[in-house]
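Progress report, Aim 2. The chain analyzed during this reporting quarter is listed below.
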Amino acid sequence: MAQWFYESPIWITLPVFIGGFVVISCLVVLALRPLVHKLVTDGKEWDRALAHVIGTFGIFFGILLALVAVSVYENFAYARDTAVEEAGRVGALYRATTLLDAADEIPLRTELDKYMHAVIEEDWPDQRRGVLPSASDAQVDEFEDLLSQIKADPGNEQAAFQQVLATWDLFIEARRARIDTTALELPILLWLVIWVGAAVNVVLLAFIDVRNPRLHVLMVGLLSLFIGLVIFATADMDRPYAGSISVGPDAFERVLEQVVEADN
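Predicted structure tokens for the chain:
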């Protein structure tokens, strides 16, 4: 989908997309009606053959749309879960630093505070544009450098440091998963199949020999409305961090407010 589709508000994209889809479908039907009337010589045979073709095509096209919609929603849910998990790991890491000496704790917490702001204010806008985020890399590198400089004594201090390291590893895994989900989207070839299927569906509907043009247009318009809504929802969720249906930095904002800022 074009970038404007994801950057525009839904009150613009939804009417434009659905309205355009329905109008084009109805225009195709009206354009093909004269040709269909010329081709139909035996109405019963035509209806029998067309019913078989439409029924077979409808099953395959319906299954395709359903599978694609489910797949896109699963990607969307996965992206949402990774964001929530990473935010939770940051909160756990922030709390784990309280077990360290103040000299080590304060710099680590400062970097985590900077990291949260970098994710919310810089990483997320990049992800909305489909760009792999890198703004928060500096805080991650600095935090890792600070960890490497800690000299923990054996005993409770060493155990606390090991707990911080274990939480750090989990955080890095969650962060990598969140960044990788930026590139989640359907292959172009699959979108081509969907649009070709939608075009074939309209042509087959136009082949139905309906003598009343208003009834024909109404029937095609209603079916196109539903198919257009399915395609719109699929396209809008195809890029998890963009569009009107998207994953936002809400989980990070909650952790920043409830854990980081509340502790300061």
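The first helix runs from residue 3 to 7. Residues 87 and 252 are 5 Å apart (CA to CA). These observations will guide the mutagenesis work planned for the next reporting period.
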